[in-house]
């Protein structure tokens, strides 16, 4: 049996008091040598002091949940000299400046794939709600206005072309499910070779060709400098007349005003949106008021199962990094040698370099 760690050997893990599946606290608590501190998200001195003394920081991936002061920025890193690693609580990492972390020697991980099943399922929930006209059907039932079922006639997705922008963990699941629906799948992903895209169940295509051919365009890419604003008037204008647009990715990748214009002009037949530039969007947002839009509250990955897997994955990666083991979802691999040096210095006698 290993001896209990001496206090000076204890590595401190911090998180804010935002909701997280209890598996995170339980898993960190079972790790010898790790101590968890839960800090008030709307605190001041207590939170600042806790983060300043932390070696690892688990932070929500939702930018609108985390106060700006506690997002992982250059200024926060400067105030947290002991911080060795950061774990984003989702596939996204909008609350973390990865480049600043790299400069500071801080390793960053996300939980890509942990909630992939949940988000892939939401993609089809939005798509099927659109083509089966579920919103209109329920409204007619509540109002008693539907004279015939034919007035609410929808469409099939069998035989349609599905265009995926990004075919990572989530996109690959969406592609596999599409085969069961009898859809043909195209995918644009500049980070993957053509052979890998085919292995994941899609035909590779450049973005222009995908927009020309797809009956449904679904976004599955991260929000970063390359993807921010990548879907605007030009891209919506190139989509097939009557096509559908789906996003379970991140707000900010598509231009909401340009999407609204494409729907108003009749260029697109509908949109399914789980993500927004401002979350939640205001209740009078014009996209929310349209009958050809199915909208959700960025809940694609928010399932009991998905949140539990995210929490477990974050705890496991933090424990691995603080033990000197390379994690599975390292976002800045170039930082790893420096991270190991900083970790070794922390364990050296009296904090002297080894």
How is the topology of this model organized?
Blueprint: E1 11-16, H1 23-29, E2 34-39, H2 45-52, E3 56-59, H3 74-79, E4 85-88, H4 98-104, E5 107-109, H5 116-131, H6 134-143, E6 161-165, H7 169-181, E7 184-188, H8 194-199, E8 203-204, H9 207-213, E9 216-219, H10 233-238, E10 243-247, H11 256-264, E11 268-273, E12 293-295, H12 304-322, H13 336-347
Parallel strand pairs: 1-2, 1-3, 3-4, 4-5, 6-7, 6-9, 7-8, 9-10, 10-11, 11-12
Structural notes for this entry:
The protein has 354 residues and is an alpha/beta fold. The protein has two domains: 144 residues, Rossmann fold (3-Layer(aba) Sandwich), CATH 3.40.50; 177 residues, NAD(P)-binding Rossmann-like Domain (Rossmann fold). It is built from 13 helices and twelve strands. The chain has a seven-stranded parallel β-sheet with strand order 8-7-6-9-10-11-12, with helices on both faces. A five-stranded parallel β-sheet has the order 2-1-3-4-5, with helices on both faces.
Q: What CATH architecture of the largest domain would you give? A: 3-Layer(aba) Sandwich
Q: Specify the number of helices.
A: 13
CATH superfamily of the largest domain: NAD(P)-binding Rossmann-like Domain
The residue ranges in which pLDDT falls below 50 over 5 or more consecutive positions are 1-7, 350-354
Indicate the radius of gyration in whole angstroms.
Answer: 23 Å
Work out the helicity level: 25-40%
Termini separation: 28 Å
Broad structural category: alpha/beta
Strand content: 5-15%
Assign an overall shape.
elongated
**Order of adjacent strands in the largest pleated sheet:** 8-7-6-9-10-11-12
CATH topology title of the largest domain: Rossmann fold
Overall number of strands: 12
Please state the average pLDDT score.
Answer: 94
Largest sheet: 7 strands, parallel
CATH class term of the largest domain: Alpha Beta
What number of structural domains do the residues give?
2
**What string, H for helix and E for strand, traces the elements in order?**
EHEHEHEHEHHEHEHEHEHEHEEHH
Domain D-isomer specific 2-hydroxyacid dehydrogenase catalytic: 46-332
Organism: Achromobacter pulmonis
Pfam families: 2-Hacid_dh, 2-Hacid_dh_C
Domain D-isomer specific 2-hydroxyacid dehydrogenase NAD-binding: 125-300
């Amino acid at each position: 049996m290993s001896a209990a760690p001496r206090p000076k050997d204890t590595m401190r893990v911090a998180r804010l008091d935002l909701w997280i599946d209890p598996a995170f606290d339980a898993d960190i608590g079972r790790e010898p040598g790790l101590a968890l501190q839960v800090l008030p998200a709307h605190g001041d001195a207590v939170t600042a002091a806790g983060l300043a003394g932390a070696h690892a920081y688990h932070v929500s991936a939702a930018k609108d949940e985390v106060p700006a002061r506690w997002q992982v920025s250059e200024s926060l890193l400067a105030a947290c000299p002991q911080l060795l690693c950061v774990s984003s609580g989702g596939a996204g990492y909008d609350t973390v400046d990865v480049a600043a972390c790299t400069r500071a020697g801080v390793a960053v991980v996300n939980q890509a794939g942990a909630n992939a099943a949940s988000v892939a399922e939401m993609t089809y929930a939005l798509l099927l709600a659109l083509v089966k006209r579920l919103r209109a059907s329920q409204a007619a039932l509540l109002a008693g206005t539907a004279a015939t079922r034919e007035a609410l006639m929808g469409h099939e997705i069998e035989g349609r072309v599905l265009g995926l922008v990004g075919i990572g963990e989530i996109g690959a699941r969406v592609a596999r499910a599409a085969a069961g629906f009898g859809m043909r799948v195209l995918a644009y992903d500049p980070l993957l070779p053509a052979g890998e895209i085919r292995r994941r169940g899609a035909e590779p295509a450049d973005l222009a060709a995908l927009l020309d051919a797809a009956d449904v365009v679904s976004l599955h890419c991260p929000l970063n400098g390359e993807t921010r604003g990548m879907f605007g008037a030009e891209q919506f204008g190139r989509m097939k007349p009557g096509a559908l647009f789906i996003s379970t990715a991140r707000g900010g990748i598509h231009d909401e005003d340009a999407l609204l214009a494409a729907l108003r002009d009749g260029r697109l037949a509908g949109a399914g949106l789980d993500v927004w530039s401002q979350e939640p969007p205001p209740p009078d947002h014009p996209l929310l008021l349209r009958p050809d839009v199915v909208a959700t509250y960025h809940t694609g990955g928010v399932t009991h199962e998905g949140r539990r897997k995210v929490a477990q994955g974050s705890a496991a990666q933090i424990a691995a990094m603080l033990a000197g083991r390379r994690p599975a979802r390292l976002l800045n691999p170039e930082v790893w040698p420096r991270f190991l040096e900083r970790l070794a210095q922390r364990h050296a006698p009296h904090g002297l370099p080894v």
